[in-house]
Structure formats: C-alpha cells, structure tokens
Amino acid sequence: MSLLETDELVVRYPGRGRRAAPFTAVDHVTLDVRAGETVGLVGESGSGKTTVGRAVLGLAPVASGRIRYDGREIQRCTRAQRRALAARIQVVFQDPYTSLNPAMSVADILTEPLVAAGTGRREAHRRVADLLDRVGLPGDAASRFAREFSGGQRQRVAIARALAPGPELVICDEPVSALDLSTQDRILRLLLDIQHRTGIAYLFVSHDIAVVRHLSHRVAVMRRGKVLEFGTCRQVTTEPAHAFTEELLLASPVADPARQRDRRERRRRVRRAIDGHRESP
Asked: Which domain holds residue 258?
C-alpha cells in the first residue's frame, strides 16, 4: 500500500494583474510513494516539482485532485489532524544557510519540534544527543549555533530536525544542490544510511537526474507541470520513454573530455527535436 498518493493533482496560482489568467504550476499529476522507498521527482527549474512537495505540506493552493496520506485525504483533515500529520511528514529544504534560525542553538532547534509535540524537556534533550549521533555530528554541536557550521554540517542539522518527530516520510526539496560535490556525496550517503536503519520514505525533489539516480527506487520526470514518465529508476534512467528525460541524462557531466563533447552534441540534437516537436502543428 502506498504511503503518499497524489491523484490528478492541480495547483494554480492567480495571474499577475487583474485580467491575467491563473498560472497552472502542477497539471494533473498522479504519483505515489510507498513505505520505505525513495521516489525521485526530477525536472528543470519551473517544472512544478517543488510545488508538488509544497502541496503535500499544505503550502500550495490545490485547485483540484486529491492528496492522500496513509489512505486519508489530506484536504479533508481538520486543523488538529493536520498538526498531528505534520509529525509524520517532515521536510528538508534546499538552503541550509536560510532554513535554520541563526539566533538559536542547535539544541533549541532540535528540541523545539519535540516540545511542541508534548515531549518533556529532559527527554527532548536526550533525544537531541541521539539525533546528533545519528547524523554524524559531535555531541558538543548542541551548544553551538547554526552559523558556526559549514554548509554540509548545517544540512545535517536540518536532517536531524526533520527526523526529530519520528516521521514516516521526509520531503527532500533539493537538499544537496547548494553544497559542493564532496559534501553532496556525504549527505546522500547519510540519507541512504538513515533509510536503511529506520525504514523512512523520501520524496526526493531535484533538478539533477544523476543525484536522483543515486538513491531512488522509482523516478518521476516533470516538465511544465506534467509528469512525462514515472517508473523504476533503472527503467527511466537507462531506457527513457521521453526525449526530455534523455536530455536530462545527457546534461550530467562526465570526466572524459571527448565523451563530454559527444554528450553535448547529442543533447543539442535532442533539444532541437523537442523544440521542433513542440512547434509543429
């Protein structure tokens, strides 16, 4: 059974200006995330992939369609039910430099969601020590401020904050795009390790299909608000059904200069084919 399901999800924003038509950011998107798996949601900037995650979190206006979590339709939840659901669905945002309060110590950042959920302060502080160990940060990190850490360490704090309530699903919104390559690799390995130990599920949003391929069980490719294809990671990344997916795959750089030149030329041909198809009557 799926943990999270979106069924013909549509998200629209008001147009700019009194007579402007509404903008459809997500256009009849259907996908699901099963317990313990990672679904990669990949697409170029403006494709609507982040908006899907925001809609699940209740941060984007749902015009039509359904979002179900563990069989319950989220839109019909009361405010109290939505608060309870927040403990089961958490998020890791893109930028670790802005997603953490610079005026709060790491201990305060991590205990805040626990105390809000009714955990006693003594137990909350014990949990903080466990969370820091789980994400590979030293125990003395609790007394320090987020601004004292590197980008990778801050993202570890953000991951610890997401894990604090004991969620079943974490929406990862471009969690490594602001980090250098070596730090990206460490954070991805950390997410995989956490999943293996806890059975948590991820909806992993990214513009980089190479990153998505690294940890996803299934992959959905989005463009202009629509899902172009959705299948197993192996199927989508080795035998893509859509030319746009092939273009995303060719956009990932390789170390060999000759192969990279060939990939650039192939990508230009695919892009011309896509543009030609769109412009044809």
From this structure: 242-281
